[in-house]
Amino acid sequence: MRATEIIRRTTAERRRDSLERLGSERDMWVSTAHPDHGPHQLPLWFLWDGQAVWMCTGANSATARNVRKEPRVRLALPDAFDVVLLQGEAKCYPAREVPKDSADAFADKFGWDPRTEETPFLYLRVAPRTVRAWRGVPELRGRVVMRDGVWLG
């Protein structure tokens, strides 16, 4: 493996790069917690609508059960070098109650519509309150690019 020189980005550049990845990537790691059983983490497909992340999971899954009891979640794009972490609260929408435009956009992106499945699905909407983005140690300082739901830079 070859070392790569890291050129420190400005907050505005990190914000731009984070938004670009949110708009183009497919998978997001979702971390939830259960009061008795502790942390739970798994990857889900996601849609970024410009304001929030939309994901879908089985209505009876551990993820769904956890967010109903504790809505605070942490999300991560799957790249350990170009890190983007989001934190916020998940709002739950049963498939029959999800806003049509969001569910349609999700179905268009993935070619799969959870609303048509026989088993019940739950959509999760997470509007981030905090976003952190960094590439290696040189970018650890200043890694917060969104604070209290407001983009910085």
UniProtKB/TrEMBL annotation:
Taxonomic source organism: Streptomyces kronopolitis
Keywords of the record: Oxidoreductase
SUPFAM superfamilies recorded: FMN-binding split barrel (SSF50475)
Superkingdom in the source lineage: Bacteria
Xref: InterPro entries: F420H2_bilvrd_red/Heme_oxyg (IPR052019), Pyridox_Oxase_N (IPR011576), Split_barrel_FMN-bd (IPR012349)
Keyword Oxidoreductase: yes
Stretches assigned to the Pyridoxamine 5'-phosphate oxidase N-terminal domain: 23-134
Protein's name according to its UniProt entry: Pyridoxamine 5'-phosphate oxidase N-terminal domain-containing protein
